[in-house]
From TrEMBL:
Family statement: Belongs to the bacterial solute-binding protein 2 family.
Protein's name in the database: Periplasmic binding protein/LacI transcriptional regulator
GO molecular function: carbohydrate binding
Pfam families for this protein: Peripla_BP_4
Residue ranges of every copy of the Periplasmic binding protein domain listed in the record: 51-309
Keyword terms, alphabetized: Signal
PANTHER family xrefs: D-ALLOSE-BINDING PERIPLASMIC PROTEIN-RELATED
Cellular component, GO annotation: cell envelope
Broad class of where this protein is predominantly found: other
Subcellular location: Cell envelope
Length: 337
């Protein structure tokens, strides 16, 4: 595609480019076919089984929903959950994984985490004969990873952004967690899409989102960027791989009176979806995952594995892209008030 053909496209034409710009690679995986509640009578059981659940942290809506859903599902299936939360502390996470391996549970499920930090310990668990499953972790030591289709999420969000800005303009990108598999996939899909739109430019240097104090830090960084680029139209959008930096960015843009800039993120946190629903808010779109369903499906996969069933490499739970037009429908479907 040439520069001339990319710059003047409207929303419909840009979205039609999905098949070219954002071809989704799903790997050896399957989509979850039904909610966990719909499969309550399929004979799965964890009776007499101890299932370790390790969370990198639960301060974020997505993580907490997955964590609680997993605990509930283990109990519902008659098992005993051994649940630990590292509070976003890598040292504590490693220590907890070490303890879990020593306890020899019937299975271990790891929720998120930087691969270089957790993978050696997932390997130790497997070497100790403990089946390892994951949520949003692309590890070769995981027998099954339950996740959203992050290739699709990244492509759809990028195409929405490009459509909204008319296929041209500067965008600000938060890229602080490339070591976390879903964040890396979403970022790569953004880059893959915008290479077809040479008038869309990522401002350099890219910003690094942080944990903790994510909202405040994003607010400060975006405020500084807006001071550096004070003219309207000099920045068209802000992108982040999850929606808590998006929250801080949205607040900073509103405070500066620069609501012509749109923000984009991933997860479907209630406070961000509320901003997307506000017609006067800079929040443009949020790819809403279904974290409770991801948690349920991950534990059901544990039960299937322990019952002798063969699992796919990955199990995908569909995500829903919420924009200004459909956010009411999406929040209703997700059960978010």
């Amino acid at each position: 595609m040439t520069e001339g053909t990319a710059s003047g496209l409207g929303r419909r034409e840009i979205l039609k480019l999905a098949a070219v710009a954002g071809a989704t690679f799903a790997g050896a995986g399957v989509f979850a076919s039904a909610p966990a509640s719909a499969a309550a009578d399929d004979g799965l059981s964890l009776k007499g089984k101890r299932v370790a659940i390790s969370a990198t942290g639960t301060d974020h809506y997505f993580d907490l929903q997955v964590y609680n859903a997993q605990i509930d599902e283990v109990k519902r299936l008659g098992g005993e959950p051994i649940a630990v939360d590292a509070g976003r502390n890598d040292g504590k996470l490693i220590a907890q994984l070490q303890t879990l391996v020593a306890q020899k549970p019937d299975a271990l499920v790891q929720i998120l985490g930087t691969l270089s930090v957790i993978d050696p310990w997932l390997k130790r668990a497997r070497d100790a004969g403990i089946p390892v499953l994951t949520v949003d972790v692309g590890s070769t030591n995981s027998l099954n990873n339950t996740t959203s289709d992050n290739w699709g999420i990244g492509k759809d969000l990028a195409l929405q952004l490009v459509s909204d800005i008319g296929g041209e303009g500067n965008i600000v990108v938060f890229n602080g967690f490339y070591g976390v598999t879903p964040c890396a996939i979403r970022y790569d899909q953004l880059v893959n899409v915008i290479k077809y739109f040479p008038k869309v430019k990522i401002l350099q240097p890219e910003l690094r989102d942080v944990i903790p104090n994510t909202v405040q830090d994003a607010f400060t960084q975006i405020t500084a960027i807006l001071n550096k680029y004070p003219e309207k139209g000099s920045i068209k959008a802000v992108w982040s791989a999850w929606d808590i930096p998006q929250l801080g960015a949205t607040q900073a843009i509103a405070a500066a009176g620069r609501n012509e800039i749109r923000t984009y993120g991933v997860d479907g946190s209630p406070e961000v979806l509320q901003l997307v629903a506000d017609p006067d808010s800079p929040a443009g779109a949020d790819a809403a995952q279904q974290p409770a369903e991801i948690g349920h499906v991950a534990i059901r996969n544990v039960a299937k594995l322990l019952a002798g069933q063969t699992l796919p490499r990955e199990t995908y739970v569909p995500a829903l892209l919420a924009d200004k037009e459909n956010v009411g429908e999406i929040t209703k479907k997700l059960g978010i008030g």
